[in-house]
Design brief:
Blueprint: H1 18-31, H2 49-52, H3 58-65, H4 68-76, E1 82-83, H5 84-90, H6 96-108, E2 112-117, E3 123-128, H7 130-168
Antiparallel strand pairs: 1-3, 2-3
């Protein structure tokens, strides 16, 4: 498990040092300016509020839905049902085990529905639930943003790589 419990650097109970201590020190000054409803003095939401409330699972959910395999599965299941083998064929580089784990996690979170048809051999189909469909809209926005800014990102990477190469020599 990472420093801090529940993969959250802000959960420092039972941990020593590491990210939890650094974050606590870095945000200690801002903590006094946060109101009871989780907003900073200027009215803006505290960017760390979602990660510090006891029992908050936002970080865990984000870790799940934002990983590369989950994003691809959700994108592929948009408004259609697919069988396991179809998903595996469409997702380049995913192993059978990783696809199985990803689908189970998405099913557990209520984002994907698994339907087993009583035929021989068994036929299993996966589709997005209504909740998963709402997430697809968000993912589509992210993909659109990436497509619109890919040239800027490529230029920034090339610039960074050029500076890094000069610093190494």
């Amino acid at each position: 498990m990472e420093v801090g419990t529940f993969k959250s650097p802000s959960h420092s109970e039972g941990t020593v040092g590491g990210a939890a201590t650094e974050k606590a020190g870095a945000t200690a000054g801002a903590a006094a300016a946060v109101s009871d409803d989780g907003h900073l003095a200027g009215g803006d939401p505290d960017p760390f509020q979602w990660d510090t409330r006891e029992g908050c699972e936002v970080r865990q959910i984000l870790d799940r839905v934002a990983d590369k395999w989950s994003l691809l599965v959700i994108a592929l299941l948009d408004r259609r049902k697919l069988r396991f083998t179809q998903l595996r064929r469409e997702i380049d580089g995913i192993s059978q085990r990783m696809l199985t784990v990803t689908l189970r996690q998405l099913e557990r979170d209520g984002l994907v529905e698994r339907t087993v048809h009583a035929v021989v051999p068994p036929r299993v189909e996966y589709e997005l639930t209504p909740l998963g469909g709402t997430l697809h809209t968000t993912i589509r926005s992210l993909v659109t943003w990436t497509e619109e800014h890919q040239n800027e990102i490529a230029a920034a990477r090339a610039s960074y790589d050029g500076r890094a190469a000069l610093e190494d020599h």
